Amino acid sequence: MNPDTLFQLSGPLAMAGWLALAASPLAPRLTQLAAGLVIPVILSLGYTALILANWSSAEGGFNSLAEVMLLFTNPAVALAGWLHYLAFDLFVGAWEVRTARRTGFPHLLVLPCLVLTFLFGPIGLLVFLGLRLVHGRFATQTAGGLA
User: What residue ranges are annotated as transmembrane (predicted)?
Assistant: First the structure.
């Protein structure tokens, strides 16, 4: 299978995971299994196969920005990089949903974090951590006021 075909297949697979996370209050265990494990594993297997098959023949490396840019001129290595993003961002999104559920953080506040994590990875994670911090302080103050 060529890199273009794998790229075309990876997008809908990852999107299914993100949609599952958005709808996770409807079936929490199923969505965590799909978006937090099965889909990231499939994407990671694709990544691993691409790296094993193409890494040794690719030019470039990680010693400078120029080498990284050269590395990603190889379509198979660029696809591996894309799968890396998809797998890790989805895994982080599943962690956000799981953590929110465990700590009582409202799912409606998680949804914008999921969108940001899907589109911009670390920005979504930062927003989630910031909201969680604020919510945690608010929840502590509210609980303290009731006790």
Answer: 32-53, 65-88, 108-131
Identity of the amino acid at 126 = L
pLDDT of residue 145: 43
Given a cut of 90, is residue 74 above it in pLDDT? Answer: yes
Whole-angstrom CA distances from 87 to 4, 109, 120, 121 are 18, 23, 13, 11
Q: For residues 25 and 114, what is the distance between their CA atoms, to the nearest angstrom?
A: 14
CB neighbours (10 Å) of residue 48?
12
Report the predicted TM-score, pTM, of the whole model to 2 decimal places. Answer: 0.89
Position 2 pLDDT exceeds 50: yes
